[in-house]
UniProtKB/TrEMBL annotation:
The chain crosses the membrane at residues 6-29. Keywords: Membrane, Transmembrane, Transmembrane helix. InterPro entries: FAD/NAD-bd_sf, Flavin-dep_Halogenase_NPB, Flavin_halogenase, Trp_halogen. It comes from the Bacteria. This is Tryptophan 7-halogenase. The lineage of its organism: Bacteria, Pseudomonadati, Pseudomonadota, Betaproteobacteria, Burkholderiales. The keyword Membrane applies. Pfam families: Trp_halogenase.
Length: 500
């Protein structure tokens, strides 16, 4: 029997999570539901979160966001991957590039031929076989030319860097044009129905009650509804990911506009560098047990490309996830649902993923428990698999110059991650489980980039002759080099693209 539909959806919070949710719901629900968003100018937003992964393109496309207009509105740039500096050992440098590696031709994946030739000392750097890595190294960018068949130029996989505050503003404009009502002010508490504990309203400082059937908690770390009202609990993962603070500061830009994020490991954490059109976003993520706030600020400010634009802004966090992202009629999206540090720029994607899941399990007035349980199970799956990939970056280090890194290299890691590393170590095999976010290519690049190589390669590699493999790999690298030569400079491409 059909249960009555919801009438009013209240989104609590207007950061990236709140406005992405509002835009997506306003687009998908086509005006059939009343959508209200409450945000407080006084509290503000976390205001970091400027690097993304390629799936953001899908969000923008579905939301009807025009790319050049969006880049202009947010001072955005293109991103082809993340460069990791000092992670395996001090002085090491590798790129985790988007998209594929090499060109599959025979029985097993390209990487398996690479493992054999590397062991023989006959392979080039992995970056020579990937269009995104090679282009990033040369500061080149262009949109994929899908008309070029199987040319690497048809496969340029990319994401964006953007100003988080301007992105939220851009989404707000879109949402309001699609009927979302914005309410400004501070929520002081929530009220609950007596018979089942569902939240029925949030109460504003001025006494107004904002009532609703479904509440989406996008209130950031505080988790105003999911934690402060419903007390669902938080699973702390800081024994695996011990960094607990960040300092963020933008600086003046430099003439070269790099099409990638950089993550540089320091003595007790790491520093991000995110190039925008008008400035560079920087932040030092660190573990307060190993470095003081003053030292952390000194490290950050000593490693900027240009003059800082203001003082470093402190942010505190505990890595982990909310035990239930959906409880009763409250769904937590964004920082209220958990936090994984931004080494692989995953948080905005987690928001997008949660919105899609909410649409998949969209409730009626019945709020069916099996749907809620399925939503929570899937949230946990994605959080845990992404967490393991991030732990890998810390665990797979051979740095003996700092206590922090030695502790990371000796930690007890989750069983699923142990299994993955062991599988890779024997024959270079990787297995992507279901729809986990990072592909075999992503894992491969980080493992190899941090000096973990398999003891042996796939036996079927030897079906091909060594000369044949060499010829094949050289031809892939040659084609990629020619393609990169053809590509325009990243800054020149943006200037032209955003000109109109
Ligand atoms: P917030 O931005 O904190 O928004 C919370 C909203 O709730 C605000 O509008 C606030 O006004 C409102 N609110 C709260 N309490 C009340 C109240 N009582 N009454 C009314 N309104 C209220 N993600 C990436 O994908 N890439 C990155 O590179 C990246 N870097 C990061 C670096 C750091 C150091 C951190 C901490 C996070 C980073 N993230 C990154 C994560 C990203 O910043 C967040 O996922 C994203 O900004 C979403 O935040 P949010 O909207 O959940 O919370």
């Amino acid at each position: 029997m059909q249960v009555p539909h919801l009438n009013t959806i209240v989104i609590v919070g207007g950061g990236t999570a709140g406005w992405m949710t509002a835009t997506a719901l306003a687009t998908a629900l086509r005006g059939r539901y009343r959508i209200r968003l409450v945000e407080s100018d006084e509290i503000g937003i976390v205001g970091v979160g400027e690097a993304t992964i390629p799936m953001i393109q899908r969000f923008n496309t579905v939301a009807g966001i025009e790319e050049a207009e969006f880049l202009k509105a947010t001072n955005g740039t293109f991103k082809l991957g993340v460069e990791f500096v000092n992670w395996g050992r001090r002085g090491d440098r590798y790129m985790h590039g988007f998209g594929r590696l090499g060109q599959d031709l025979w029985m097993v994946g390209f990487e398996q031929y690479w493992h054999k030739m590397r062991a023989l000392g006959k392979a080039r750097d992995l970056a020579d076989y990937s269009i995104t890595r090679a282009a990033a190294r040369a500061n080149k960018f262009m949109l994929p030319r899908t008309d070029l068949g199987n040319s690497p130029l048809a496969e340029i996989t990319y994401a964006y860097h953007f100003d988080a505050g301007l992105y939220a503003r851009h989404l707000r404009k879109l949402s309001e044009s699609r009927g979302v009502e914005r309410i400004e002010g501070k929520i002081v508490r929530a009220t609950q129905r007596v018979h089942d504990g569902h939240v029925d309203a949030v109460v504003m400082e001025n006494g107004d009650r904002i009532e609703g059937d479904l509440f989406i908690d996008c209130s950031g770390f505080r988790g105003l509804l999911i934690e402060q009202t419903l007390a669902t609990g938080y699973e702390d993962w800081s024994h695996w990911l011990p960094c607990d603070r960040a300092l963020a500061v933008p600086c003046e830009s430099v003439p070269v506009l790099t099409p990638y994020t950089r993550a540089t490991a320091h003595q007790a954490g790491w520093q991000w560098r995110i190039p925008l059109q008008n400035r560079i976003g920087n932040g030092h993520v660190y573990c307060s047990r190993y470095i003081s706030d003053d030292e952390a600020a000194h490290v950050l400010l000593s490693n900027l490309d240009g003059k800082p634009l203001g003082d470093p802004r402190p942010i505190r966090f505990t890595t982990g996830m909310r035990k239930k992202a959906w409880e009763k009629n409250v769904v937590a999206i964004g920082l209220s649902s958990g936090f994984l540090e931004p080494i692989e720029s995953t948080s905005i994607h987690m928001i997008q993923d949660a919105i899609q899941r909410l649409l998949d399990y969209f409730p009626d007035q019945g709020f069916s428990q099996p749907d809620v349980d399925a939503f929570n199970r899937l949230s946990r799956f994605h959080y845990e698999r992404t967490r393991d990939f991030i732990i890998l970056h810390y665990y797979a280090n051979q740095r003996d110059d700092a206590e922090f890194w030695r502790a990371c290299a000796h930690m007890e890691i989750p069983a699923a991650l142990r299994e993955k590393i062991d599988l890779f170590r024997t024959h270079g095999r990787l297995r992507r489980v279901d729809s986990e976010l990072f592909t075999e290519v992503g894992w491969q690049q980080v493992l190899v980039g941090q000096n973990i190589h398999p003891q042996a390669y796939h036996p079927l590699v030897d079906v091909q002759s060594e000369e044949g493999i060499q010829e094949y790999m050289d031809s892939v690298a040659d084609v990629i080099r020619q393609c990169v030569d053809y590509m325009p400079d990243h800054a020149a491409f943006i200037a032209e693209y955003c000109k109109a």
